Amino acid sequence: MKNGIMECSVCHSKLVSPSAKTISRAYDRHKSRISSKQRALNVFLVVGDCVLVGFQSILVYMSKVDGKFNFSPISVNFLTEITKVFFAIVMLLLQARHQKVGEKPLLSISTFVQAARNNVLLAVPALLYAINNYLKFIMQLYFNPATVKMLSNLKVLVIALLLKVIMKRRFSIIQWEALALLLIGISVNQLRSLPEGTTALGLPVTMGAYIYTLIFVTVPSLASVYNEYALKSQYDTSIYLQNLFLYGYGAIFNFLGILGTVVVKGPSSFDILQGHSKATMLLIANNAAQGILSSFFFKYADTILKKYSSTVATIFTGIASAVLFGHTLTLNFVIGISIVFISMHQFFSPLSKVKDEQNGVLELHDVHDKQRSKESFINMAAGANEEATHRVGHDERQPLLPS
């Protein structure tokens, strides 16, 4: 490699060395050529995510008694991680039984140790998710389920910024406008969402709510982007093996949280099943399924798609909470939802996509200086001249086999 340029050892073609920006743009081009099987997977992921995310806020609301939780939220998160670890082990055993002859065994010690070393970065999103899962319960003390879902949609904008800064992803102007529309829709729905005069943690509820909202939006957004990076950077590793590490780290962090609660509140708080009900058991199962589905989003689909699919769950959550708990579907909610759906259509519209030709031109400007651009032009001119000498005449276009 010389001056950021690699030369193919076979055909001696000039290639730009891979970078975070070129890899990201290659992924964007790959998305435009996805197969029907991949589209079917995306549809399944979106539908499943809508159902699970929609039910989550409702189950959390059902788990409250007189507006409070009789159980430790950390215990729910710990049991959720244990459930996901058990699922990952079962799927690994099933996958190992169907391995082909000659493939590297999944359950060997060497494979496990090597995968553990390569996927150590999964500890970072696991820690962030442990913090975020606790914040989900705190947010339920401030807002009704529909509003919690609308606030969580703020993560889309934060994730887009993180993808642009960290992974050098590119978004068109139309897509940024779609994200701006999303913020407007959320803001419209958020009007008058907090009862006047309510207080929490010794602060005015608006101040406490804004602080928790800021953390609630930033922490999981960073976790999602980092999780996608960690999963895709070790793409050849089985997703169930990666999940085993991710959920294992999550269980460890939540168990440390339980130990911290024991130190503060005493040994009685070590009973992780205290205060649980059928609603909390359903909540644990739902959270586990949602976490498993998210890992498939991050490895085989896209973080933006994951968050937009959660946006679709907003209308389901709003209607369900109105039917089950008598929450009123205000005009603000209806208008906000309408704007959100317009934003989704605009963001994923083919007209908003960044063209491949633009990617290639901008990539040359980003990588080459004037001298290397001149050399590239000379090479292209030479290639065009060579192609002209190989143009076939009328006779040469006859069939190769006799008719």
UniProtKB/TrEMBL annotation:
Q: Which residue spans traverse the membrane?
A: 40-62, 74-94, 173-191, 203-223, 244-264, 279-301
Grouped into one coarse class, the protein's main location is membrane
Q: How does the protein associate with the membrane?
A: Multi-pass membrane protein
One cellular component term (GO) for this entry is: Golgi membrane
Question: Which InterPro entries did the record assign?
Answer: EmrE-like, Nuc_sug_transpt
Tell me which UniProt keywords the record has, alphabetically.
Answer: Membrane, Transmembrane, Transmembrane helix
Report the subcellular localization: Membrane
Keyword Endoplasmic reticulum assigned to the entry: answer is no
Its family remark reads:
Belongs to the nucleotide-sugar transporter family. CMP-Sialate:CMP antiporter (TC 2.A.7.12) subfamily.
Q: Report the PANTHER family cross-referenced here.
A: NUCLEOTIDE-SUGAR TRANSMEMBRANE TRANSPORTER (PTHR10231)
Please report the name of this protein according to its UniProt entry.
CMP-sialic acid transporter 3
Its source organism is Glycine max
